[in-house]
Amino acid sequence: MLLFSNIRDKINKKQALKVVIGLNNFNVSKIIQKVKAAEIAKATYVDVAANSIILHEIRKKSSIPICVSSIDFSELYRCFQAGADLLEIGNFNVFYKKDIMLSAQQIISLADKLIKKAPNATICVTVPCYVSLAKQVDIAKRLEKLGVYMIQTEGYSNTGKLPLVRSLKNASLSLSSTYILSQNVQIPVISASKINPLSASTAILAGAYGVAIGSFLYDKDNLWNLTESIFSVVRSIEIYNNTLIDSKNISLCQNIICNYIVLDRIKVLY
């Protein structure tokens, strides 16, 4: 509970940063390297495959809170019993390459089963990006009613010429989902998929309580580069939260972001 309280405090401050280690990553030495980098850079928590052996290995080396992710009930429940701080039904992008796409009902049913079997567990669920925004809102509201602690958005890659434009376009699906879902549910929303230092603060402005990074770290192959990259996102969030912006400017910025990210995918709204 102590480790989870650290996650909750950061979420309440809208400063949470999750470092996604990867559902396909079972190399313990590489996992530990990223975990150490996340801890040094003061990330809020890490997200690993729901595997009790990996969980125990991380516990030996680090005190950072651990989230485990899977779409398999038994894996998640075993990790809950082994002391995982947070259970996540999600990080679906790994399964898309295998043409595995869970239906809304499958996601809801899995969440319901997990809540009933482990009522004391803290649960996050990814809301899939391949359904319309209207359907995402419906899924999010049903998850909130079930008692899920928070939800996570996702997206896919896009292109752009300028760094800022490219960064926003790459995260546009996730940002638009973040904005719309945060307007329709009371539980925290974590913005994930193609998030980097440029888009992280935009995600917070769009309504996120925190962000998750994974692909941003793909080409970082040593502890120094990993730590530096993670810390750059931590600072991006902190600078945004510590900057005094009057309500009129915040409203203007939100309108610009809303127009950009929602118009970018208005065709899938219904």
UniProtKB/TrEMBL annotation:
<comment type="similarity">
    <text>Belongs to the ycf23 family.</text>
</comment>
<protein>
    <recommendedName>
        <fullName>Uncharacterized protein ycf23</fullName>
    </recommendedName>
</protein>
<keyword id="KW-0934">Plastid</keyword>
<dbReference type="Pfam" id="PF04481">
    <property type="entry name" value="DUF561"/>
</dbReference>
<keyword id="KW-0150">Chloroplast</keyword>
<dbReference type="InterPro" id="IPR007570">
    <property type="entry name" value="Uncharacterised_Ycf23"/>
</dbReference>
<dbReference type="GO" id="GO:0009536">
    <property type="term" value="C:plastid"/>
</dbReference>
